[in-house]
Amino acid sequence: MPLTPATLTRHELIGRPVRVVAASNPDLVGIAGEVVMETTRTLSVEGSTHDEPRVWQVPKGEATFEFTLTADGDTQVVTVEGEQLVARPARRTERTGDSKWR
Amino acid sequence: MPSEEQLAAERIERLRALAKAATSAGETDRARAYVRRARRVAERNRLSLPQDFKRFTCDRCDAYLKPGVNARFRTRDGHVVVTCDCGGHARYPY
């Protein structure tokens, strides 16, 4: 069961390039980088501002994420409502109901 | 559900690779968190960890072991002794 847009919400998110496209907190919108850590309610995204590396902790529940998947040379951009990712990291795999990706 | 187990196995493999990369980049605490996450995924899905995962992680402190960087790999009579920087030992036959 490889990583597809449909299995993304149940697969490992760490190491994936991500961008915050919408959030209740406007300061979070536009954060882009790589997921480095995940907790039940947040994702830590490592990116950079003014060439300084920086890690942002983004609440999953209040944000919409755009993950970039690369498979066999072609890239796919998957938009995920953060609400769907709210779960303990190891438990996320066990949840039914795959992503309603667009 | 076999597909779920497969998904979990892929996650473990991915976390192993990420832990390895993080150790190379000097992010040992991050690597440790990835190893712990992989162990947790395996535990929840009742999967045994792959052999290279077992051999290159420390049972004592969960570090991802890189020979010469944070671990010593020494051959002894009939077995390899791996010593982590934390002081934990592991040995396996060859």
UniProtKB/TrEMBL annotation, chain A:
GO BP annotations, alphabetical order: tRNA 5'-leader removal
GO molecular function: ribonuclease P activity; RNA binding
Main location: cytoplasm
Superkingdom classification of source: Archaea
Catalytic activity: Endonucleolytic cleavage of RNA, removing 5'-extranucleotides from tRNA precursor
Keywords: Cytoplasm, Endonuclease, Hydrolase, Nuclease, tRNA processing
One Pfam family from the record: RNase_P-MRP_p29
EC number per UniProt: 3.1.26.5
Transmembrane segments: none
The keyword Cell inner membrane is assigned to this record: no
GO CC annotations on file: cytoplasm; ribonuclease P complex
Subcellular location: Cytoplasm
Function: Part of ribonuclease P, a protein complex that generates mature tRNA molecules by cleaving their 5'-ends.
HAMAP family xref list: RNase_P_1 (MF_00754)
Family: Belongs to the eukaryotic/archaeal RNase P protein component 1 family.
Subunit structure: Consists of a catalytic RNA component and at least 4-5 protein subunits.
Protein name: Ribonuclease P protein component 1
Organism: Halorientalis pallida
Upper classification of the organism: Archaea, Methanobacteriati, Methanobacteriota, Stenosarchaea group, Halobacteria
From TrEMBL, chain B:
Residues reported to bind Zn(2+): C58, C61, C84, C86
Principal cellular location given in the protein's record: cytoplasm
Keyword vocabulary terms for this entry: Cytoplasm, Endonuclease, Hydrolase, Metal-binding, Nuclease, tRNA processing, Zinc
Catalysis: reaction(s): Endonucleolytic cleavage of RNA, removing 5'-extranucleotides from tRNA precursor
Gene3D superfamilies xrefs: 6.20.50.20, Immunoglobulin FC, subunit C
Cofactor(s) this protein cannot do without: Zn(2+)
Entry's Gene Ontology molecular function annotations: ribonuclease P activity; zinc ion binding
One cellular component (GO) term of this entry: ribonuclease P complex
GO biological process, one term: tRNA 5'-leader removal
Cofactor note: Binds 1 zinc ion per subunit.
Top EC category: hydrolase
Record EC number: 3.1.26.5
Localization (cell): Cytoplasm
Source taxon at top rank: Archaea
Matches recorded under InterPro entries: RNP4 (IPR016432), Rpr2/Snm1/Rpp21 (IPR007175)
Subunit structure: Consists of a catalytic RNA component and at least 4-5 protein subunits.
Similarity comment: family membership: Belongs to the eukaryotic/archaeal RNase P protein component 4 family.
Known role: Part of ribonuclease P, a protein complex that generates mature tRNA molecules by cleaving their 5'-ends.
Name of this protein: Ribonuclease P protein component 4
The species this protein was found in: Halorientalis pallida
